[in-house]
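Async update (no meeting this week)

Hi team, since we skipped the sync, here's where things stand on the single-chain job. The sequence we agreed to prioritize is pasted below, unchanged from the tracker. I ran it this morning and attached the output directly underneath so nobody has to dig for it. Comments welcome in thread, and please keep replies under the output.
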Amino acid sequence: QRQLVESGGGEVQAGGSLRLSCTASEHTFTWYTMGWFRPAPGKEREFVAAINWSSTTTDYADSVKGRFAISRDNVKNTVFLQMDRLNPEDTAVYYCAADSGGGMGAALNLYDYWGQGTQVTVSS
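Output:
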């Protein structure tokens, strides 16, 4: 099966850090753009961050710029989301997604594969 599996979620106090991981089942994901999403009011999911296959391009939502960092290890077929200075507004289920179309964007319909999500809870 071709799938993505997230891990690394948990509960932290405000100001703390977490590092999320997303591992792909197949090496075909090496050439895909990878992204992270979370639920938002009025939307199924909102864009958080994305990275292209070679790690030469990254993009972030304004709400997380300067606090979150996306990276990837193509040998291990894994993408990471380092989250620092977390606040309660960051509490959400975080989903990893893969875009096989070769583009970079925040639209949900660009992404072909989705993980099951990992819960991040930030207490005040």
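Quick observations from my side:
The mean pLDDT is 94.
The first strand starts at residue 4 and ends at 7.
Reply here if anything looks off.
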